[in-house]
Specification:
- Strand 4 (94-107) and strand 5 form a beta hairpin.
- Strands 1, 2, 3, 4, 5, 6, 7 and 8 form an eight-stranded antiparallel β-sheet that branches.
- The chain has a single domain (3-161), classed as Jelly Rolls (Sandwich), CATH 2.60.120.10.
- It is globular.
- It has two helices and eight strands; from the N terminus they run H-H-E-E-E-E-E-E-E-E.
- It has helices at residues 3-25, 37-42, and strands at 59-64, 71-79, 84-89, 94-107, 116-119, 124-127, 133-150, 155-156.
- It is of the alpha+beta class and 165 residues long.
């Protein structure tokens, strides 16, 4: 099995695992989602929206749910090369799978490359609620699928690090 196929499968597993939570909240409204990589590429992409760091240049696609509302969601982030995302946290527990490129991810109150772990395609990490974390890309950029239970937020450690609208 190719790495891309394996990592895409792992990311879609996250979406599948979110289904039972939705069913518990809205048993009369089952939601069924099946997306190939080509389907995902065809979805509407936005800038750095809800559930992201807000950094310009990041492309976001909502794969499932709505990160601004109560309930499970999954978003796809496409982060360009040589990007740095300052330390921040979110109000909800989140998990993520790297699906392409290389993601350098760390925990702490300051974005310090020495504290990052290099995560290739298929890499997995968590963003516990209220835990400060940061990320970086190198020359290859990265694509990451993030799942959580909204509504989410993005709260920077240093207010001055928050991107300007």
């Amino acid at each position: 099995m190719s790495r891309r196929l394996a990592s895409t499968g792992a990311a879609l597993l996250l979406v599948a695992l979110a289904g039972p939570a939705l069913a518990a909240d809205a048993p009369t409204r089952p939601v069924q989602v099946r997306l190939t990589p080509a389907d995902i590429d065809g979805l509407v992409q936005g800038g750095a929206t809800a559930g992201t760091s807000g950094v310009a240049g990041i492309r976001t696609t909502v794969l499932y749910g709505d990160p601004t509302k109560a309930g499970p969601y999954t978003i796809a982030l496409r982060v360009p090369p040589n990007m740095r995302i300052a330390a921040h946290s979110h109000r909800d527990d989140r998990t993520a799978v790297v699906v392409a490129g290389v993601w350098r991810f760390g925990y702490g109150r300051k974005a310090d490359e020495a504290l990052t772990k290099v995560l290739p395609p298929g890499g997995f990490y968590s963003e516990p609620a209220g835990v400060d974390h940061f990320a970086m890309t190198g020359p290859e950029g990265a694509s990451v699928y993030i799942s959580g239970y909204g509504p989410t937020s993005t709260d920077y450690v240093e207010a001055g690090d928050a991107p300007k609208p």
